[in-house]
Amino acid sequence: MLKKIIFNLVLVLVLIMIAAAIIRANKPKHNVPETSFNAIEEKTGLIPREAEYYRVIE
Amino acid sequence: MNKVRCLLCPRGCELKEGERGNCRARMNIDGKLQTLVYGKPCAAHVDPIEKKPFYHFLPGSLSFSLATAGCNLHCLYCQNWEISQSNPEDTINMDMPPEEVVSQAVKNKCKSIACTYSDPVVFFEYAADIAGEAHKNDILNVWVTAGYINQKPLEEACGFLDGIKVDFKGITQDFYETVTRGDIGPVMNSIKAIKEKGVWLELVNLVVPTYNDTRDDFSRLCDWITANLGPDVPVHFSKFWPMYKLKNLPPTPEGSLILARDIAMSKGINYVYTGNIPEHEGNNTYCPACKKLIIRRLGYTVMENNMSGGQCGFCNNIIPGRWS
């Protein structure tokens, strides 16, 4: 009986972990990965300039 | 480290230090949001204004057209995806400050400067400064945009723009979500706001087979236009060409464009055009009052112009647009 309960608990846990991984993988990713802008600037000559329309949130 | 929220477009990207927005052109550097593309266009050409397409805006004139890398939408059929879906460091960029853009426009006898190809929303600051310089030199400014922008920056843009062509890509949220990865609500709000602000507005609907080409799609689109904008905003139905992630589809059949035009005209829209059907009457402008041909076009070339000071040259009916 105890074995059965433990087996079911483990099974449920595994299913939850799989579901969480699937949800995480499918979540829309709004930002491209972090990059070092210093390297970009040296390579491309892009000159960053402060943008309008933003606010600091933390 | 400061986290910032971009307030330029409805995405409202929250960016930690070193992160870049969905548009690829704006980045949190040292706790400040910075544009990466100011003064760095990756495309610049002299085009006929008809190519934008603007049909009621200085017909037969040239427009100095430019774009930077990046876009805040991700249309599956994007015709300029090599630049719109690229990081600015991955495109070949020119060094062209606003003064140089205007100088090139003057040199090439352009009557307007068009921010186009990608979406000018993502190079807002650069486009604003170009517009300021252009007006000093009596050159007009137009945007070709999807209208995916917040109201406050749009209001500012309406202050420095003389014409806006909005790609009204579809009439359902489902279409916008599936094809553009955006939302329809902000686009509708932008279109209405531009009209209310009195900036010259033309609309384009790219007709994509199986996605937005049913009789019901055209009907609903035209109903929305007439209800919210009235009958005088020119509407262009354009031909889709298999591109980017929709190479599996055929080009738009001419019949679909003609059907769209017929429906739009039956709904009372006065100026309805079809793109890429040579010799078709959908290339021309007709006076809604006397029904005579006012402007005849062949491709992007104006072959005949019977306008007279913003009026039909035959019956003096006022034709809306920016004619001089």
Report on the structure:
The complex is a heterodimer of chains A (58) and B (324). Chain A is mainly alpha-helical. Chain A contains two helices and two strands. The longest helix of chain A is centred in the N-terminal third of the chain and has 25 residues, at 2-26. Chain A is elongated, with a radius of gyration of 23 Å. The model of chain A is unreliable at 30-34 (pLDDT under 50). By secondary structure, chain B is α/β, with parallel strands linked by helices. Helices cover 27% and strands 23% of the residues of chain B. Chain B has eight helices and 17 strands. Chain B has an eight-stranded mixed beta sheet. Chain B has a three-stranded antiparallel beta sheet with strand order 13-14-15, with no helix packed on it. Chain B has a two-stranded antiparallel ribbon with strand order 1-2. In chain B, helix 4 packs parallel to helix 6 (184-197). The longest helix of chain B has 15 residues, at 215-229. The radius of gyration of chain B is 19 Å and the shape is globular. The chains are: A mainly alpha (58), B alpha/beta (324).
Q: Cα-atom Rg of chain A, whole angstroms? A: 23 Å
Report the order of strands and helices of chain B: EEEEEEHHEHEHEHHEHEHEEEEEE
N→C terminal distance of chain A:
52 Å
Q: How many DSSP helices of chain A?
A: 2
In helices, the fraction of residues of chain B equals 25-40%
Helix content of chain A: 55-70%
Going by helix content, strand content and strand pairing, the class of chain A is mainly alpha
Q: Count every beta strand of chain A, where a strand is a DSSP E run of 2 or more residues.
A: 2
Indicate the multimeric state: heterodimer
**Element order of chain A: H for helix, E for strand:** HHEE
Main sheet summary of chain A: none
Which band does the percent of strand residues of chain A land in? 5-15%
Strand tally of chain B = 17
Beginning-to-end CA distance, first to last residue of chain B? 51 Å
